[in-house]
# Entry
Amino acid sequence: MDSTDHTTPTADPVPPRRPVPSTHRADTGTPAARPFPDRPRIPRPAPPPAGPATLRRDAGRVLAANWTGSSTVPSRGLYPHQWSWDSAFVAIGLRHLSPSRARRELTTLFAAQWGDGRVPHIVFNPSVDPAAYFPGPGFWRSSRAGAAVGAPAAAETSGLVQPPVHALAAWLVHESDPAGSARESFLRRLHPRLDAWHRYLLDRRDLRGHGLVSIVHPWESGMDNSPSWDGPLERVEPARRSAFRRADLDHCAVADRPTDLDYGRYVRLAADYRDHGYRDDAPHAFAVEDTGFNALLALSEHALARIAEAVGAPPEPHRARAERLTCSLTEHGWDPAAGLFRGYDVRGGRPVGGYSAAGLLPLALPGLPDEIAGALLATLCGPHFGLGGAVRLVPSYDLRGPSFDPHRYWRGPAWFNVNWLLERGLRRYGAPARADALRSALLSAADASGFAEYVDPYTGLARGSRDFGWTAALALDLLVAAERDAAAGLEPGPAHTGRATAATGNGTQTATRPAREPTPVPVPPARHPGPAPHREP
# Structure
């Protein structure tokens, strides 16, 4: 990253927060007595959202304040550097305000790509105080520790990765301004880098050899402290608490963040990976085939096929990769009894238990068999996630699970990027009314929470950081889509149909709501009785 393009971030004020009950003790990570009663909770009525012009202005204000000159920080205080999948989601919203800035967001990130193809999950800004974030550049020592696998010498980064949503973001950014994209050769420059990124994952991280990528640290899932990782993490000896200082607690309530025990294990895993030179053939105490990560890789392969066509490269290899990933997910990850996809603990040799929102993310993929898509929709709206019933936003973890916590990071709060992906999935698989309701709830929550990092799924109250980059960006993207629908005269249609009513001067007529039609993907025989492949009507 070019240091001359950065301005020194200033810490944003964090409003005081009341202490909240938690199911994890912050000092030990031991489950505390469960303070949340096991009964249905009535969500608070959502406040009326700000008008579109006000919401657009406020989202733009957040994105402008978080802009460094070459990229967007997730938040000025808590996350003062560039994060990988954050930048992808930010670019998706930023394209509506400034396509050129959206393009720069992605090209800045990929300028720090490693020689082996990996895109690091953090690119450090050298003008930021090294003590502002832990683990910082002095911990990762990427340019030295990762030199043998191609870490850049001119930038300090982490050695881990995050979910690969970048090709999807690049294609959407290109579509927003094809002429500007062509002038900058945006896709032509980015295509080989995106291809190398995907090849790194598929070639270096397929630890079981059947076409699914493994993550080697919980941070690589993007869902850092999900209860899904509790079992695999039990094998990891945590670093001593005295060995690190948590800068995150300077900016957020303790009850909103991972525990010290979690952090000790994160530090141990990252240090071991670093000390093995960030080699993927080194032993990994934690290795999991994460459903969400693989689903997003397949989704981005579909986008990369379109990018390849646009630059005159063959799209078929990318379509084939997407199909193989979808088939492998269906064969190895689909749990018909649970009605969702499950990850696999490679070291433990067993599926990951519980109900994580990661298991719903394949709903964003095209071409799922009808039976699987229908089961995912039922799970999404059933008692474990409660969409449209107990809650208006999808929680990150099972509402009924013993590890659910509505405040603590990825152990239950609702996140805007996950809900944005599921909103697209609802539209893709014929549930426009539910998608409209989710879109409305997301816009209301973004407005009412001050663009919070995440929110309590029951109350919508803000948790974590405020003025969060991807919350503002994705709210802007949803707002533009809502305005486009309104301009087309479309109203919410009945759930599970693609029909909507539109008023005309001659009365009321039936109109077809635009839908993202799935492309059929052949599904191989699964270990469980498998459904018939999906076919377009």
